[in-house]
Automatic annotation (TrEMBL):
Domain ABC transporter stretches: 31-272
Biological source species: Virgibacillus kapii
Protein name according to UniProt: Phosphate import ATP-binding protein PstB
Pfam families named in the record: ABC_tran
Region entry Disordered, spans: 1-28
Gene3D superfamilies for this protein: P-loop containing nucleotide triphosphate hydrolases
């Protein structure tokens, strides 16, 4: 069987006392998905999805094109509602609250759940204003508070040192990799619990990809991260758990090491060893 080994970041070797590494410690879930189905008109895009997303972990979603990865991610923050033909059944809870229930205000959900997209999409504004935008919308006007949020968010996204002397410059003047970290900083500025990432490095060069992967590894100390990726080495490198989607179904969901070394389902094995997809 061809499998991928999971290279360790240096730091992982030093956190063996972390209670999250103790298999006997019950983990807290942020999202629970039960029997979720989703249709775009007649297209049955998600079928009986059951998944738990654990706090302060990186969960990777892998699978071939069109298997429903992005749809699932966009269901978690209700972006999928923007498509008029969408229908759902089943249940998603975020910290016990029913996400798909219309009484859960989408604005409240989005202050807790940030999203980073495949293509870096900074606003055509200064670096500073990109980060301050969300907090301003939430009513923060005090310049000193905004300055602090901007610095903290840019530091959190590992880009402060690169941009601290050019905060008034347009974010479009940055490289693609820097723009993506600005988008991550913009997401951190609203102090979310969860960060959804839809192929966040697929438009980046290998060096920028590594920076973002290292950043994700840092961010999971504070945030729960769900990442859709086509890059199986990336999933193996950075995630704690992996869900393998195929034709709208979750075929297997387990600890990443298990998925990439001893998968239970032969379809998972075929996919991770490159036999299809
Ligand atoms: N807005 C939409 N309207 C109708 N069908 C859609 C829409 N978006 C996605 N679909 C369909 O839903 C299914 C799942 O698509 P989705 O984009 O979630 O897959 P994916 O696994 O993220 O694919 P990729 O890896 O190519 O991004 C596909 O059959 C797709 O054609």
């Amino acid at each position: 069987m061809s499998t991928l080994t999971k290279p360790k970041f240096d730091e992982e070797l030093t956190i063996s006392n972390d209670p999250r590494n103790n298999k006997d410690t019950p983990k807290t879930t942020v999202y629970d998905t039960k029997d979720l189905n989703l249709w775009y008109g007649d297209t049955h895009a998600l079928k009986d999805i059951n998944l738990s997303i654990y706090e302060k972990e990186v969960t990777a979603i892998i699978g071939p094109s069109g298997c429903g990865k992005s749809t699932y991610l966009k269901t978690l923050n209700r972006m999928v509602e923007l498509v008029p033909s969408v229908r759902t059944s089943g249940m998603i809870t975020y910290k016990g609250k029913s996400v798909l229930d219309k009484s859960f205000k989408v604005e409240d959900l989005r202050t807790k759940v940030g999203m980073v997209f495949q293509k870096p999409n900074p606003f055509p504004k200064s670096i500073y204003d990109n980060i301050a935008y969300g907090p301003k919308i939430h009513g923060i006007r005090n310049k000193k508070t905004l300055d602090e949020i901007v610095e903290k968010s840019l530091r959190g996204a590992s880009i402060w040192d690169e941009v601290k002397d050019r905060l008034k410059e347009n974010a479009y003047g940055l490289s693609g990799g820097q723009q993506q970290r600005i988008c991550i900083a913009r997401c951190l500025a609203i102090e979310p619990d969860v960060i959804l990432m839809d192929e966040p490095t697929s438009a980046l060069d290998p060096k920028s990809t590594l920076r973002v992967e290292e950043l994700i590894h840092e961010l999971k100390k504070e945030y729960s991260i769900i990442i859709v990726t086509h890059n199986m080495q990336q999933a193996a490198r950075i995630s704690d758990r992996t869900a393998f989607f195929l034709n709208g179904e979750v075929i297997e969901f387990d600890e990443t090491d298990k998925i990439f070394t001893t998968p239970t389902d032969s379809r998972t094995e075929d996919y991770i060893s490159g036999r299809f997809g």
